[in-house]
Amino acid sequence: MRHHTTSIAHAAGDPAAVQREGGDGLLPMINATLPPGSRLHLRSRDSLPRGADRAVHDAARALEWEEDADGAHHIELDWDGGQGQSVLVVELPEAMTAAQRTAWMVLATRTIELHLAATRASSRVKELEKSEQLQQALYEIADLAGSSLELVDMLQRIHAVVARLMYAENFYIVLYDDAAQTYRFLYFADQMDSFRPDPSVEIPVDSAPNSLTMALIRLGEAVFGSSEHVRRRLGVSEDPNHGPDSADWLGVTMRRDDRVCGAIVVQSYDRPDCYGVEEQALLGFVAQHILTALDRYQAREELERRVEERTKALQLSNRDLHSEIIERQRAEKLQRALYRIAELSISAGTLEIFYAQVHAVVNELLDARNFYIALLSEDGARLEFPYSIDEHDAHRASRVLDSGMTEHVIETGRALLTDPHRMAGFRGHGTVAQCWLGVPLYRDNTVVGVIAVQSYSEDVTFTARDQDLLNFVANHISIGLTRKQEQERLVLAHAELEQRVDSRTRELAMANAELLEQIGERMRAEQQLTHQARHDELTGLPNRSQLLDHMGVAVTKAQANAHAVSPSEDSCGFAVLFLDLDRFKLINDSVGHSAGDDLLVEAGRRIVAAVRDHDLVARLGGDEFAVLVNDIEGLHVAKSLAQRVLHSLGQAYWIAGREVFPSASVGIAMWQPRYGSGTDLLRDADAAMYRAKASGRDRWAVFDEDMREEASRILDLEADLRRAINGDNFIPYYQPIMSLDGHQVVGHEALLRWRHPTRGLLAPGEFIGLGEDNGLIEEVDWLMYAQVITRLSRGVDGYVSVNVSPRHFRSADFADRLMRLIHNAGANPNQLRIEITEVALFDDIGRTLSTLHTLRSHGVLAQLDDFGTGYSALSCLHRFPIECLKIDRSFVAGLTGEKQAESIAVVRAIQALAGTLGIHTIGEGIETEAQRDILFELGCERGQGYLLGRPAPQMGQLETVESA
Question: Contact at 8 Å (CB) between 366 and 464?
């Protein structure tokens, strides 16, 4: 016979499945279709012989049937399933006919197809069962999240759900806080590990450097395998403090918004290879639903907490409202009682009726069935009881003052609330009561009697609230009683009136004389108060209020004359001089405020002596004075007067043992028809004074249209500045800082620029002064700091320095605020420098040191800008953590000018100081190659200036400057 080979490509599905299932049922089924004595083999094509034997075998596939040496016959069936070929080898005891072979081939192929179909169906059923089991587990987790179970019970049930999906006897959940760098074990169940964590305790990440769980969280991916394998995978050293090793370990992370917020771990101590890719995917899927369940549980807990807080707040509010209603009802009842008492003082016919009706009113407010009124006799030696109602003592006789409770209230002038135990200290009169309350009755701030209530039953007691109530009512009873007594006395007085008329007339005459004297004294006091209200307390000069009144009169007079058809010839204009003493703060700081006050008094005296008699000199406050110059023919008179005042002020004056030469800056404003009030005139004179002070002090300046335009320009610029802050129109320009030897960029200085909508790009000099005056420069600085730090977060070469105003160093939170900007932007603080001036350095040394040390501890270094131009105390400069001294441009410019020798000496001294302090220097304002070369020769290694690079909106590669 001849061999025959048949290939069935894809006919029976996956050949690997055929090979897997062959031993279970496929091969016996095929074998049943063969003659007895046949043998079947199922193997991969790759397992066939290699080399010559394989070549012979492949050649035999194309031949007819042949008999083997042992008389057996072979049939080979090939399946190409797309994942490698499998071969079914049939060894027959004897050859088949062609028809038998064909029939057997069809039967074998159909058998394989049916078997594989059944296998796939069985696999599908298992997958569906697993999916249904997983879905049911997720439903249970969701239900648990919405249940009212405690967190521990909920997590235990979730653990049971996970255990139904895979081996999870050892199971724990970890929550991770990336902001605080802590983690906590929310749930922990382990058969061998004795560790029992507290779910509420936050564990620092740094305390567990060899924790597999924290390594898993840092990796952010699922990991499974033995403990040794996982440690190698995560790069963690073995640490017995983290529990015994596992035969198999599986951990997956929980994520919220792409952030790892925790992990779930299952492990087995005695079952290796428990977990694989399928368990990893399953646990990862379940982990996210567990996280969702935890979030829902926490949200529910938070909602319940808020509901409980709101309920408590409503209960408290309701209780307060109820108390308020009761209090209001009590107040209304008390008010009605007081109205009745006031009415009784008028309507009651006699005192006895008045007493009885008052008793009835008091009885409505508290239990006053036992009630009496005690009054001192006219001579104050006895107690009289004009009214008394009592269950046990029907009559109370008057008595000499004793040591009873009624006498105690009269002596002390205070209410008394007592019981039988406290009554033992007083002398008793009548039946002993269980509770006694007495309050004083006043007339003209003198105690004249007592109102008392008492109880003989333990069921009726009085409280402090009753005491307050009776005390309040007693005041009105005192008024009513006084009024009623006065009415009775009035009747008696009418009988004596005629006899006392003459005497009373004389008394009235004397009273009138005294009254006239009091009126005169009051008028003198009013005049003194008026003078004080319109004059400065220190100098005695008129104050701002009086000055404005006089200026208002002068303005009205000048306006009337300006609008008159025929102006009067004797009506002239007027002017205002605004004076501010120069360097007055230096006087206060050096010799004290008392000496400063003496100087102010002397300055006022000299100004008064220098002006004309009908001119008004006023002190506005502090070291500011003003002069109203009336009836002048023109501006020249005001100028002459201002010069005379300056000359008078400039004379030597001894103060606190020192000779000083005071000076002032004077602003002059001449009245013009455009002025509507004295305030406008005073404002312009103030502006002119600042012009004089800016021009060098000890001089005067006249307000003119240029100043008005400048003032308008400043107002417009300030408005533009405020709008620019809201519109974010400030940008940093970056000027390179280069090494002077290799011309390499080592950093940049961020310089502020303003994109003005109409004036274009403005340098700091055009608006910094205005910003310093109105305080807006701090907001501008923070806008620029934010832009620079944002640019740093995108990556730069070298560092970037920003200029910091002394204003910022007066703020205690400057360093913290700057570090928050850096942290929020994700920038590197080591690439940021701050430039400060010597003024900021020594303004508040303690606060400056604290701020600089805080910044340096976070990597932000400080550079001292414009060094040499301030008032540095070199003896304490070493105390400050300064990284660099920046040589001021004035010294750099002088290196090639007439002051070359002085500038070189200064630069050499700065270099020596920097070398002593161990810091480097930067030369500013380098504009020529000669300046650069001299700086380099003197030891300065870095510089900036137009020669090395101009400020630009972007940092980039700059052309280097070739050496001359």
Answer: no
State mean pLDDT over 415-419: 86
Is 579 strand, coil or helix? strand
| Secondary structure string (H, E, C) spanning 9-55 | CCCCCCHHHHHHHHHHHHHHHHHCCCCCCCEEEEEEHHHCCCHHHHH
Q: Which long-range contacts (CB under 8 A, 24 or more apart) does 287-290 make?
A: 287/252, 287/253, 287/254, 287/263, 288/254, 288/255, 289/138, 289/141, 289/142, 290/141, 290/158, 290/173, 290/254, 290/264
Q: Classify 6 as helix, strand or coil.
A: strand
Q: What is the pLDDT of residues 317-370, one digit of tens each?
A: 888 888 888 778 777 777 777 777 767 666 666 777 878 888 888 888 888 888
pLDDT of residue 45: 59
CA distance between the termini of the chain = 102
Q: Looking at residue 772, what is its pLDDT?
A: 66
Using the predicted structure, report yes or no on whether residue 865 has a pLDDT greater than 50: yes
Six token digits for residue 77: 């069936």
- What values do phi and psi take at 628, rounded to 5? -90, 110
Model confidence at 503, in pLDDT bands (50, 70, 90)?
confident
CA atoms within 13 A on the CB side of 171: 17
The DSSP code for 963 is: P
What letter represents residue 209's amino acid?
P
Handedness of CA 647, 653, 655, 661 (dihedral sign): positive
Q: Does the pLDDT of residue 473 top 60, yes or no? A: yes
Q: Which residues is 224 bridged to in the sheet?
A: 250
Percent of the chain with pLDDT over 90: 19
Query: Rounded CA gap, 322 and 482, in Å?
Result: 38
Higher-scoring residue by pLDDT: 96, 53: 96
Least confident of 422-431, 492-501, 847-856, 903-912: 492-501
Q: What residues form DSSP beta bridges with 756?
A: 760
What mean pLDDT, rounded, does the chain reach? 80
Q: How many residues in the chain?
A: 964
| Bigger pLDDT: 726 vs 24 | 726
CA distances (Å), 680 to each of 117, 329, 686, 773, in order?
A: 104, 59, 10, 21
Structure tokens, 627? 């002069």
DSSP state for residue 458 in the 8-state scheme: T
Given a contact cutoff of 8 angstroms between Cβ atoms, the answer to whether 599 and 591 are in contact is no
Q: In this structure, are strands 799-803 and 745-756 parallel, antiparallel, or unpaired?
A: parallel
Please report, for residues 618, 665, 667, 682, 948, the alpha-carbon distance to residue 697 in angstroms, rounded to integers and kept in the order given: 21, 5, 11, 19, 40
d(CA 455, CA 320) in angstroms, rounded, equals 32
Q: Are 751 and 949 in contact (CB under 8 A)?
A: no
* DSSP SS3 for 286: helix
Quick one: which of 442, 469, 439 has its CA closest to 367? 469
Of the candidates 610, 586, 520, 575, which has an alpha carbon nearest to the alpha carbon of residue 701?
575
Q: Any long-range contacts for 550-556 (C-beta under 8 Å, 24+ apart)? A: 550/616, 550/628, 550/678, 551/576, 551/628, 551/677, 551/678, 551/681, 551/682, 552/677, 552/678, 554/628, 554/630, 554/671, 554/678, 555/671, 555/675, 555/676, 555/677, 555/678, 555/681
pLDDT at 533 > cutoff 70: yes
Selection from 789, 777, 773, 787 nearest residue 724 by Cα: 777
